[in-house]
Amino acid sequence: MKTFRTVVAGLIIVFSNVSGHAFAESFTLEFDVDGTSRNAIIQMPEGAGDGPYPLIMIFHGGGGSAHRMQRVSEDFARSLNYGGYVVAFMNGTARRNTRNLRTWNADHCCAYAADEHIDDAAYVNAVYAALTARTPIIEDEIYLFGHSNGAMLSYRIASDLSFTPDALVIVSGAMFEDQPTLPRGTSILAIHTRDDETLSFSGDGDRSARHRTAPILAFDDVRDRLEAMQSCGDRETNTQLNATLITGAACENGGRVVTLVSDEGGHAWPKDLPGVHLDGFILGFLRGERGSVPQ
């Protein structure tokens, strides 16, 4: 069972011990889900041989799109490809099938996807099936990364998929009171800032409240809920420069719950946090999960 100190140590070596693969090609998977045309952009590592590969699925925030998320995440995705990951930029739905302004159905949010009860778990399963039909994927090394509305979705569907995510990376997301149980052994990295005005740290009084049909939990309550849900042990705390608070707890079946809280950084992705190289922190967390199999 890995400890929180393993995560911190992993951050120190993340850039000195990568696999050496760079971005090779990008292609679009297209298919129908419940009569709706859906797609995802796949970015492959270069020079990695025939695989199999670890996979990270990246879910944009509300009002975004796979194309926009790929553009703003260029540096992050390049680092992932360099580490040998297949990167899948997932694409939500929109009322007029516009290029942007897309959302995900996280039950209580957001906009078109929630209003129309879009089955986004079925979409994720379809992406996985289409991708594995042409590219070998390591079944025990699949990760969900979500920002904002995409983070809400990652929480909601983790137990409804045809595969078990090894870990969730939640950036400026939110959890509702009726959060479903997460798979045992799945690790979670949750990142939030106290100055987030879109999905507030306290869980109330933010700009997106009118788009939600249920209240969200305060981030401190989210941390407690995750640790209880995953049957974690004692929490370790490490305060970094600029009042960045990092906590970690080792959980049953090899999972971990790690949180990072900063006073500054806002809601947007990519995110600049004082004193923290966030891409490196996330990559260090993922490296700590490689080879860890949910039971």
Task: Quickly list its features.
alpha/beta; 10 strands; disordered N terminus
Topology:
Blueprint: H1 4-13, E1 23-33, E2 36-45, E3 53-59, H2 66-72, H3 74-82, E4 86-90, H4 111-115, H5 120-132, E5 137-147, H6 149-157, E6 167-171, E7 187-193, H7 219-229, E8 236-239, E9 245-250, E10 256-262, H8 278-289
Parallel strand pairs: 3-4, 3-5, 5-6, 6-7, 7-10
Antiparallel strand pairs: 1-2, 2-4, 8-9, 9-10
Helix pairs in contact: 1-8
Summed over residues and divided by their number, the pLDDT gives a mean of 89
In terms of per-residue confidence, which ranges show pLDDT below 50 for 5 or more consecutive residues?
1-20, 291-295
Instruction: Give the strand order, joined by hyphens, for the main sheet.
Output: 1-2-4-3-5-6-7-10-9-8
Instruction: Tally the beta strands.
Output: 10
Largest sheet: 10 strands, mixed
**Alpha plus pi helix count:** 8
- What Rg do the Cα atoms give? 18 Å
Strand content: 15-25%
Cα distance, first to last residue?
Answer: 12 Å
Q: What percentage of residues falls in helices of 4 or more residues?
A: 25-40%
Secondary-structure class: alpha/beta
Q: Label the overall shape.
A: globular
- Element-level helix/strand string: HEEEHHEHHEHEEHEEEH
